[in-house]
Automatic annotation (TrEMBL):
Residue ranges occupied by any Acyl-CoA oxidase/dehydrogenase middle domain in the UniProt entry: 125-216
Pfam family, one: Acyl-CoA_dh_N
Lineage of producing organism: Bacteria, Pseudomonadati, Pseudomonadota, Alphaproteobacteria, Sphingomonadales
Entry protein name: Acyl-CoA dehydrogenase
Source domain of life: Bacteria
Cofactor(s) this protein requires: FAD
Gene3D superfamilies: Acyl-CoA dehydrogenase/oxidase, N-terminal domain, Butyryl-CoA Dehydrogenase, subunit A, domain 2, Butyryl-CoA Dehydrogenase, subunit A, domain 3
């Protein structure tokens, strides 16, 4: 493991730092529209400088750089109050799938606008019957002339309410095992028959949606990959999920230490409470473990290697720690803990926000249990899960009826 930049990496970091210092504009968003406009402007500026998708080829508007350069830029960018979350799923997962499977004309039409933040993409995989087990999805597509007619429902579709396009996984064959009867398409989310219903979250936000399909016609020309070969396409999407090795930050041990110095608990400050000190020490040790695991991933990238499944460890630990720290801080704040308004709550409501958002983080991108299965099977080499439905036709499964 190597904690230091190579001379080339240090030079790249210095250039990125200078560029960010010269280009980040102070912006306080007053509304969602305002926030979106600022995010689009920032994305366009990065695209013009080759910083929007550093690892993409230059011919597609990328930076023609390496994964480690992308990590370095991400670490530096995270130090600034800029917004780019709207584009993460599209640029990290959907558009790379389009680039891998669509024809040249489609790529020419869509890659540039997505890169510049002009168009936003969503990933429509999960359904009420298929989340961890995506291959169990039931949304059906039936061929009709040059089109496919799609009926069914997706759920937890992040950003669909502000997205323009999406990639959608559907079932095209029920006579074969579940992984073998899926097909992927791209579609315009404003197509007739697509209904997007935002889900209201306990945090007050609405970041994801239910998406209903009623006789939606998708031209066969919008198919990505071969008919019934959508599982292979979906794996490309999932493998492109951005490596969560960036800057960290947020409600961590350092922030709760700051709070513990200020909050009263019984006879003195919370920091002097022995039970709290024990927890703080545990979080500190975890945070160091996380930092070292991330450094191992970054070292692999720096050496041109592909990081292994051990990066799943980071997500399980980080999401659980965030929830644990958030809950402990909210409890320690006593009645102030229930004030979530950033204008009134201590540390601008950082811990209240952690408490409300951490449960979702433990589910998104693979639940704790699924990631532990990956660690057990692929890192520790333990026996695989028993899969009784692997060879059965989808129509013969309980979920397939
Ligand atoms: C913030 C957020 C954003 C999301 N964004 C998107 C998006 O943009 N697009 C999209 O398609 N989806 C999205 N999702 C959906 C997400 O991928 C699923 O919620 C996730 O895969 C879990 O699926 P599920 O909700 O159906 O739960 P289930 O798969 O039904 O799981 C229920 C419980 O059973 C456990 N479980 C399931 N299988 C196993 C097993 N084999 N072994 C042990 N335990 C198991 C799970 O760990 C969980 O505790 C998002 C979710 C969240 C929370």
């Amino acid at each position: 493991m190597d904690f230091n930049d190579t001379p080339e990496e240090a030079a790249y970091r210095a250039a990125a730092r200078d560029w960010l210092a010269a280009n980040v504009a102070e912006h306080k968003a007053a509304s969602h529209a305002d926030d979106m406009a600022a995010a689009r402007a920032w994305q366009a500026r990065k695209a013009a400088a080759g910083y929007a998708q550093i690892t993409w080829p230059k011919e597609w508007g990328g930076g023609g750089g390496t994964p480690i350069q992308s990590v370095i830029f991400g670490q530096e960018e995270a130090k600034h109050p800029v917004q780019y979350g709207y584009f993460t799923i599209g640029l990290g997962m959907c558009v790379p799938t389009v680039m891998a499977f669509a024809d040249d004309a489609t790529k020419q039409r869509f890659v540039g606008p997505a890169l510049r933040g002009e168009e936003i993409w969503s990933q429509l995989f999960s359904e009420p019957a298929g989340g961890s087990d995506v291959a169990a999805i039931r949304t059906r597509a039936v061929r009709d002339g040059d089109d496919w007619v799609v009926n069914g429902q997706k759920v937890w579709t992040s950003g669909a309410h502000y997205s323009d396009y999406g990639i959608v996984l559907v079932r095209t064959n029920t006579d074969v095992p579940k992984h073998k009867g899926l097909t992927m398409f791209w579609l315009d989310l404003r197509s007739p028959g697509v209904e997007i219903r935002p889900i209201h979250q306990m945090s007050g936000g609405s970041n994801f949606n239910e998406v209903y399909f009623t006789d939606v016609r998708i031209p066969d020309a919008q198919r990505l990959g071969r008919v019934d070969d959508g599982w292979k396409v979906a794996l490309v999407t999932l493998m492109n999920e951005r490596l969560a090795v960036g800057g960290g930050g947020g409600a961590g041990p350092k922030e709760i230490l700051k709070l513990a110095r200020e909050v009263d608990a019984g006879e003195g400050k919370l920091l002097h409470d022995p039970a709290f000190r024990q927890k703080l020490a545990d979080w500190w040790v975890q945070a160091e473990g996380l930092r070292n695991t991330r450094m191992r991933t970054i070292t692999a990238l720096s050496r041109g290697q592909t990081p292994g499944p051990e990066s799943s460890i980071g997500k399980v630990i980080a999401a659980n720690q965030l929830q644990d720290i958030g809950n402990s801080a909210v409890e320690a704040m006593d009645q102030y803990g229930i004030i979530a308004d950033p204008a009134l709550a201590p540390l601008k409501g950082l811990f209240q926000s952690a408490t409300l958002n951490a449960p979702g983080l433990r589910i998104a991108g693979g639940t704790d249990e699924i990631l532990k299965n990956i660690i057990a099977e692929r890192v520790l080499g333990l026996p695989g899960e028993i899969r009784t439905d692997k060879d059965a036709a989808f129509k013969d499964l309980a979920v397939g009826r």
